Amino acid sequence: MSLAPPPPPQHSSSAGQEKNYALSPLTTGEGDRERDTDRLAGRQQTDRPVRSLLVIRSLLVLRSLLVLGSLLVLRSLLVLGSLLVLGSLLVLRSLLVLGSLLVLLEHYLTCFSGTIAVPFLLADAMCVGRDQNTVSLLVGTIFTTVGITTLLQTTLGVRLPLFQASAFAFLIPAQAILGLDRWACPPEGLLLGYIGPLTITPTISLIGLSVFTTAGDRASSHWGLSAL
To answer: Rounded CA gap, 102 and 115, in Å?
Structure first.
């Protein structure tokens, strides 16, 4: 008769199962913590480049705004500088034009005095010193010839900004020639030597005083028209 081996004790297996059952929740909790830790570390490692990119992007945007602001300020300064330069050029141009006009007026007055002196110097030698009509013709003639020569010089000549005035070089020869007996002035009348300012002034005064009463009567009718 053979004896079968005794079955293993049930309590030991139950104790092992209880032991494994008791350890499994702990093991599972530690694994979850490790997985959460790994996930958190992975998220942090993943978020760091993203945050770095966001910071770099913000810095680039800020830099772009600063560059744009600097360009706008520089453009405004350039526009303001251009306006100031333009204003300065306009003021300088106005001053140059004013100075040119003053120099032109001075040159004109100098040439005018030198040009108009020639007819009066020749009038007495030509025996027309007391004929105002002839003297005016001489003045008009010399100014006309001066204008024509100036126009020809500035258009067809050397085109320099010059005024072709009359020359004084021919006055001495002209006066010497007109002083000859052949060109001597005719003698004046006998009475012309006695008629002077002392004779003409009283005559004009007597004529004016004789019409004073008539002029007063006419003016008293309307003093406004008389004042005009």
So the answer is: 20
Sequential DSSP letters for 54-122:
HHHHHHHHHHHHHHHHHHHHHHHHHHHHHHHHHHHHHHHHHHHHHHHHHHHHHHHHHHHHHHHHHHHHH
3-class state of residue 193 by DSSP:
coil
Residues 127, 170: Cα–Cα separation, whole Å: 18
Q: What are the C-alpha distances in Å from 92 to residues 99, 105, 161?
A: 10, 20, 22
What does pTM read for this prediction?
Answer: 0.42
Distance from C-alpha of 58 to C-alpha of 48, rounded to nearest angstrom: 15
Q: How far apart are CA 43 and CA 36, in angstroms?
A: 10
Give the tens place of pLDDT for each residue, 160-197: 777 787 778 888 888 888 888 888 777 766 666 667 67
3 state SS of 7 = coil
Within a 10 A sphere around the Cβ of 153, how many other Cβ atoms? 16
Nearest residue to 118 via CA among 148, 146, 149, 154: 146
Of 126, 155, 157, 130, the closest CA to residue 142 belongs to 126
